[in-house]
């Protein structure tokens, strides 16, 4: 498929697409758009970076615009659920960009920000709603939103939603929807849990699939720098300076580690910001904007915060610490080498992390090159520190089990706040914060 014209999209959408500068559809778009336009349910195997957002947003907009539009307060017709606030904001931007020539309205709702403007938007009437599950349920409980006439449901990054313990919230949302609707489910991985969710949700789905990016990782040069733990920060500053890296995304395992590292890098004279679930929405948005504009050179992120961030053509990703879960390594380095650009992923690995490294190499089925940097040679006699408590993420939950927190960063402040809120009487003053 060489052109968007052949996909059956309306002139309004083609115009918006061409203004985005897209000359041809990505493989996931070429597969998904005609099927969704046909009204079929879709199970999409695609990660961020494949163009999946336009893959479901464009046909969704076209389907809604072909139905008669209603003025004033009206029920929501399409709902996109996302795991994180950042992804919700990005999908919301895409809906607004692609739908700019159509008479449809959209809104984005997520936790961590004042609920009142969201309520006002919902009351004005919204055709397409992009939401994180928790805040959506808050609005549903307050009867701010009517989902009973929904035409299309999209679950974006469904695997992450389950990882973050949203299955119960998703099930609650599903109960608010009409039985007859079109369902689109996108996920980077297909665990038994995802398959169980899909089985209950999708009606004779068409499977659309693109080769998993970065399992082969041809576009990403990956290097391991063995180093002592207490030399990692100095090595990172050295690599950034010596190689003159202008835009670096650095992963740490914990929120605390992200904050501390960003502060230390600032002391080394590098502009740095941390992004993680404890930061206010404003601070996260600002950090991301500063990073994109080049005002901040180093963005330090935890896995959950970085998930779904749309940062194009990122040249350098650094694993300051290896992730506990090997799959997260693949997600992390998926931030670089996008859209045909060659990227570089560097991992600073101390003796404690050798086991994690072996697990990663097993997963990606190749041994990664190890390069010791002169002046940062690791102590040959170092032995792994005994662990105080196991760090590994607990096994994936089965449907119906209670949510458990995971190693490293916890799901999000939003979930924790909601759990607390449910267990105590509501206080309107804290609700809106
Ligand atoms: P996504 O996988 O939806 O997060 O999209 C990843 C990036 O690809 C986004 O920055 C999109 O703007 C961009 N993109 C989506 N579709 C196309 C296309 N057909 N051509 C070029 N870039 C695209």
Automatic annotation (TrEMBL):
The keyword Hydrolase applies. A motif (Q motif) lies at residues 2-30. GO terms for cellular component: cytosol. InterPro entries: DEAD/DEAH_box_helicase_dom, DEAD/DEAH_RhlB, DEAD_box_RNA_helicase, DEAD_helicase_RhlE, Helicase_ATP-bd, Helicase_C-like, P-loop_NTPase, RNA-helicase_DEAD-box_CS. SMART domains: DEXDc, HELICc. Residues 2-30 form the DEAD-box RNA helicase Q domain. Keywords: ATP-binding, Cytoplasm, Helicase, Hydrolase, Nucleotide-binding, Ribosome biogenesis. GO terms for biological process: response to temperature stimulus; ribosome assembly. It is found in: Cytoplasm. Its EC number is 3.6.4.13. Residues 231-379 form the Helicase C-terminal domain. Residues 33-208 form the Helicase ATP-binding domain. Its main location: cytoplasm. Pfam families: DEAD, Helicase_C. Belongs to the DEAD box helicase family. RhlE subfamily. HAMAP family: DEAD_helicase_RhlE. DEAD-box RNA helicase involved in ribosome assembly. Has RNA-dependent ATPase activity and unwinds double-stranded RNA. This is ATP-dependent RNA helicase RhlE. It comes from Bowmanella pacifica.
